[in-house]
Amino acid sequence: LSKNWIVNQEGIDKLIQSLVHELKAPLVTIFGFSLALQEDYALQLNKQGVSFLESINRSARNLDDKLMGLIELTEVSRQSKNQELTDFKEVLQDACHMLKSMIEKRNPQIITITDLPKVTCNKNLMVKVMVNLISNGIKFTPQERQPIINVGCKPQSKGYQFWVSDQGIGIALRLQKKVFELFYRAKELQKVAGSGLGLTLVQRIIQAHNGKLKVESTPGIGSCFYFTLPTLYK
């Protein structure tokens, strides 16, 4: 990454952090008072009033998730400077451990179809990449089907190309670039829980490692996310 890009990104990150800090205080107040109303006055409200309060609470939690996601995005540039030789098998193991609850609920097959190498990276950030890609593959597989996630890697001239594929609902061609946009949520995906930040975070992490990210997908068949990592980070 160029020094100018890093400087500009750090300035943007600081601005976002300041804005999030300013937004958190009124959000905490809104959330606190709505919970107090729900706990202390619910019996005095009719069904519509209770529904309104529940909607306020859901919206406040959703906004809080988005703000915390923004903070997570702003930390990528700083964290990516700390890299070391990392066994990607351990990255996958840690990601699966973090997804333990989802894995126990949906019982997916997570198949490593090639050996996974050692690469120079920030391990914690790479775990986040795998958590997001694997969890998406599970979430977007219809409930009546067992999720099947394939993870693989192949060497390239200057590094490695990794991939995570699923057999989920797939992504229409017209949406395949949009899914990496901040807060983007396609209408057909609104019913699936999420903040709209996961793939943006994945893209930011891969870019911070001098890599590239892309998706190939067919609706009704599934998706495959490819990302590259150089052999050595410079």
Any key phrases for this structure?
7 strands, globular, 5-stranded mixed sheet, 50% helix, alpha+beta, 234 residues, two-stranded antiparallel sheet, Heat Shock Protein 90
Structural description of this entry:
This protein is of the alpha+beta class. It has two domains: 72 residues; 148 residues, Heat Shock Protein 90 (2-Layer Sandwich), CATH 3.30.565. Helix content is 50%, strand content 18%. It is built from seven helices and seven strands, in the order αααβααββαββαββ. The strands form two sheets. The protein has a five-stranded mixed beta sheet. Helix 1 packs antiparallel against helix 2, helix 4 crosses helix 6 and helix 6 packs antiparallel against helix 7. The radius of gyration is 20 Å and the shape is globular. The model has no long low-confidence stretch (mean pLDDT 85).
